[in-house]
Write a structure and sequence with these properties.
It is built from 8 helices and 5 strands; from the N terminus they run βαβααβααβααβα. With 209 residues, the protein is α/β, with parallel strands linked by helices. Strands 2-3-1-4-5 form a 5-stranded parallel beta sheet, with helices on both faces. The chain starts with 6 loop residues before the first strand and ends in a 5-residue tail after the last helix.
């Protein structure tokens, strides 16, 4: 019998440190005997990487909010079909850097689109595939800004008001679905945050103990 896979997503505002937590989390899961597939949303497929370049890097391409949202959904549909579902079917754990919650917050709460509409489109794009757990790395705006000591992509450069709406949106979604979204204080050093992530997974998934 193929062991049951799990789908874990790391989320947070830009500067929360989520991407740097993927590798240590995978190492910890592997040490506990789990086979792990990692991915990023958008990306991790040929189509997804091409769409990612349009969304985040091509500054000369201006997108309407709905067009932007639909491109994310197209990339995500490929990600689910090519990466996430096959890995779960093999009994692997999937750790993704962002997923549908990012659309709800970036294009919905912060971008002005109706979050409920995004949910409905997302259900179609993902075939209903939801994460078993979202690890939401939460950090105050000043700390997040101080960590972004690199060239910013199109979304990251939208300013402080946009980032404030992002954080509020993430916390609102976490309150709405506290059974599937765990809020992690990410203001500490990376090693401390990594330990908090591991402790959360230990509680949510007893089979890891």
């Amino acid at each position: 019998m193929t062991p049951e896979g799990r789908f874990i997503v790391l989320e947070g505002i830009d500067g929360a440190g989520k991407s740097s937590q993927v590798a240590p989390l995978v190492e910890w899961l592997t040490a506990r005997g789990r086979r792990v597939t990692t991915c990023r949303d958008p990306g991790s497929t040929a189509a997804g990487d091409a769409i990612r370049a349009i969304l985040l890097d091509r500054r000369e391409i201006n997108l309407a909010p709905t067009g932007e949202m639909l491109l994310y959904m197209a990339a995500r549909a490929q990600l689910v079909a090519e990466v996430i579902e096959p890995a779960l079917a093999r009994g692997e754990w999937v750790v993704s850097d962002r997923y549908l919650l990012a659309n709800l917050v970036y294009q919905g709460h912060a971008g002005g689109l109706d979050p409920e509409t995004i949910r409905r489109v997302g259900a179609v794009a993902t075939g209903g595939r939801e994460p078993d757990l979202v690890l939401l790395l939460d950090v105050d705006l000043a700390t997040a800004a101080a960590r972004l000591a690199r060239p910013l992509d199109k979304l990251e450069s939208r300013g402080d008001d946009f980032r404030a709406r992002l954080r509020a949106g993430y916390l609102a979604e976490a309150a709405r679905a506290s059974d599937r979204i765990a809020v992690i204080d990410a203001s500490a050093e990376p090693a401390v945050v990594a330990q908090r992530l591991r402790q959360t997974l230990d509680v949510r998934f007893p089979e890891l103990r």
